[in-house]
Amino acid sequence: MTGMRGSGPAIRTSTRSDLKRSRRPRAHACWDHLYAAALWPMHNANLGTMLRTCDAVGACLTVPKLPWVPEALARGNTLRRPTCVHWSGDQLGWLARQRERGVRIVGVELAENAVRLADLRPARGATVAVLGHERDGIPPEALDLLDEVVEIPMIGTGTTLNVAVAGSLVLYKLAGLV
């Protein structure tokens, strides 16, 4: 039969039971390896998406102590179990402390010296992915605290992606899963 598929192996989708057996039985304890730092959030839906991505790649999420953030995280936690969240009352101070500890700090930002996402090295030690404000990006005073900057190439007419989408792509790359 010309043009018919079917000569390869049959595709079998994974069941929920298969997935549960192949993954962690519970959320990770903080192992101080990979962080998504959504320090200047604007939209609560993006925090929920980042929380889900952090669970998927084994990362922790660092967020600012803003009145609306706890509710946004609770609403966005579709896993319905505890996740690894760290709170920062001083975003710049938190980043500076991470840098002093020798943590690699990667900003997701459009910049002249940015590394393309495809060339970003996976995390081999403690690493923070800094996500900026959805409209304004990473504040200028925080740029000096970054070790490197990564940008996500785009072909279309837009200049940036939604912060949760961009953060998810970068976290998967840093986690070595893509």
Automatic annotation (TrEMBL):
Q: What PANTHER family does the record tag this protein with?
A: RRNA METHYLTRANSFERASE 3 (PTHR43191), RRNA METHYLTRANSFERASE 3, MITOCHONDRIAL (PTHR43191:SF2)
Keyword terms: Methyltransferase, Transferase
Please give the organism: Yinghuangia soli
Official protein name in the record: TrmH family RNA methyltransferase
List the residue ranges of the region (Disordered). Answer: 1-22
Query: According to the lineage, what is the superkingdom?
Result: Bacteria
Q: Which Gene3D superfamilies match?
A: 3.40.1280.10
InterPro entries hit by this protein: Alpha/beta_knot_MTases, rRNA_Methyltransferase, SpoU_MeTrfase, tRNA_m1G_MTases_N
Q: Name one GO molecular function term.
A: RNA binding
Specify the tRNA/rRNA methyltransferase SpoU type domain's residue ranges: 41-172
- Indicate whether Methyltransferase appears among the record's keywords: yes
| A Pfam family matched in the record | SpoU_methylase
Q: Which GO terms describe its biological process?
A: methylation; RNA processing
